Amino acid sequence: MRMFQFPEDLKTAYESSPLSFVYYQNVDGRAVPVLASAGFCKNTGMDREHVLDWLERGMFVRMHPDDVGMLSRISADFLNKNGPYDVVFRCKVGEDYASVHGFGQWQTLPDGTELAVIGYINVTETMQKMA
Known about the structure:
Low-confidence stretches: none
Helix content: 25-40%
Radius of gyration: 14 Å
Largest sheet: 5 strands, antiparallel
Strand content: 25-35%
Shape: globular
Mean pLDDT: 93
Number of helices: 5
Order of helices and strands: HEEHHHEEEH
Distance between the termini: 48 Å
C-alpha cells in the first residue's frame, strides 16, 4: 500500500493550521501519520520532523503508563472501525503530563483513500488559561 500524499497546496494549508490535528493512514493495521498540523506540533513542543518520527515509532512512549492499555484498545477499535475515537488521556509535554482530549473521524478522500483525522486538545493548558 502506498502512503497517501496530499496535494502540495492542501498539505501547506493543513500543516500551517493552528488547530491541533494529525491525519493517519491505516497501513497493515498500524496508524501511520501522514500529516501533522502546526497546532499539534506546538502542543507537543516538538518540530514536525520529530512529531512524525515519534508518532511513527509509537506514540505510547509519551503516554502515562496507566493510560496506555485503555488508549491502545480505543485506538485499535477505531483503526479497525469497531468504535469511536473520543478519549481523554495523559501525555508527557515537557517534563509534566498534560490531560489531552483526542477525538477522531474517518474521512474518505476523492481518490477513495480513507484517512483518520484526529484532533487533540490540551485540556490541562486550557484549564490553566481559565484559572
